[in-house]
Amino acid sequence: MKMCIVYWSGTGNTEAMANLICEGAVSTGADVTLKEVSSASAADIEGADVAVFGCPSMGDEILEEDEFEPFMSSVTGLLDGKKVGLFGSYDWGDGEWMRTWESDVKKAGAHLLKEGLIVNLTPEGDDVEKCRSFGKDIAGM
Ligand SMILES: Cc1cc2nc3c(=O)[nH]c(=O)nc-3n(C[C@H](O)[C@H](O)[C@H](O)COP(=O)(O)O)c2cc1C
């Protein structure tokens, strides 16, 4: 099972989530590639059995606009029938960006494996295990 995790993180919170999700997935024996969006390509998504995307809530409840949103748009056509997981960090909002994002990938035909995982700021306490479990769970689906 090949999983590719592609993320954007400005201050490291979503990156910390990405590392924990990766740890969880690797613990199941999955073959996981972890990439910052700046070094990812459409081929990474095309070649993955499970594509996992991470981006914090930015702007006003939207995806980061300069790098992540353009990448997401460029791979939307590859998501039809693809197993997908979504995650990201937020601060003062209520997760609206994640609900919009979930709806967009479903419209593109993706099979969203789990509800998007959202963490307030940096993953600590229970969130650490939630991130690892998210990785384990989606690797086994
Ligand atoms: C320009 C900017 C816009 C943001 N907009 C939102 C927002 O609309 N809703 C929200 O809950 N948090 C918002 N945040 C907070 C970030 O989502 C939060 O700090 C998150 O932990 C950043 O993750 P990162 O460390 O992976 O970059 C914003 C932060 C910045 C810098």
UniProtKB/TrEMBL annotation:
Keyword field contains Secreted: no
Record keyword Flavoprotein present: yes
InterPro entries: Flav_short, Flavodoxin/NO_synth, Flavodoxin_CS, Flavoprotein-like_sf
Entry cofactors: FMN
Keywords: Electron transport, Flavoprotein, FMN, Transport
One Gene Ontology MF term: FMN binding
Residues annotated as domain Flavodoxin-like: 3-139
Residues making up the signal peptide according to the UniProt record: none
UniProt xrefs under NCBIfam families: flav_short
Name of the molecule in the record: Flavodoxin
UniProt source species: Methanimicrococcus hongohii
Upper classification of the organism: Archaea, Methanobacteriati, Methanobacteriota, Stenosarchaea group, Methanomicrobia
